[in-house]
């Protein structure tokens, strides 16, 4: 009977560790949601605010946000399962959407508020989808 009690206690300890790891690994979804929300401000600012001031402000603000998110990421004690693939897929899809949005928004659809809004949503979609997937699997 003592062995069963020890085994049960061991399994409960493992369950507690697993619950803690799952809870702490949810940070990646929050990171991705924050990055997605940031796109809703960044993309219209880049596409609609022309000149040196617009470029300077949007570039510096983006640098601060990305550095803040990077510092946040480095301080996390737990890396979620599938993190690397989810992160690379989200950032790769975001890069493609962002470059397409910039290319079209600065040439074909210059100063179009409607295009800037659609482009912002398109750029927010990859990290938001990855965050949603991460929340479902956590």
Task: Please describe the structure with a list of short key phrases separated by commas or semicolons.
single chain; 138 residues; mainly alpha
Q: What's the gist of this structure?
A:
The chain has 138 residues and is mostly helical.
Topology of this protein?
Blueprint: H1 2-24, H2 27-48, H3 51-74, H4 83-107, H5 113-137
Distance between the termini: 35 Å
- What is the tally of helical segments? 5
The count of strands amounts to 0
Overall outline: elongated
- Determine Rg (CA atoms, Å): 21 Å
Sheet-strand content, in percent, reads: under 5%
Order of helices and strands: HHHHH
Please estimate the helix content.
Answer: over 70%
The largest sheet is: none
Mean pLDDT: 87
Identify low-pLDDT runs. none
Class computed from helices, strands and strand pairing: mainly alpha
What would you note in describing this structure?
The chain has 138 residues and is mostly helical. The protein contains five helices and no strands. Helix 2 (27-48) packs antiparallel against helix 3 (51-74), helix 2 packs parallel to helix 4 (83-107) and helix 4 (83-107) runs antiparallel to helix 5. The mean pLDDT is 87.
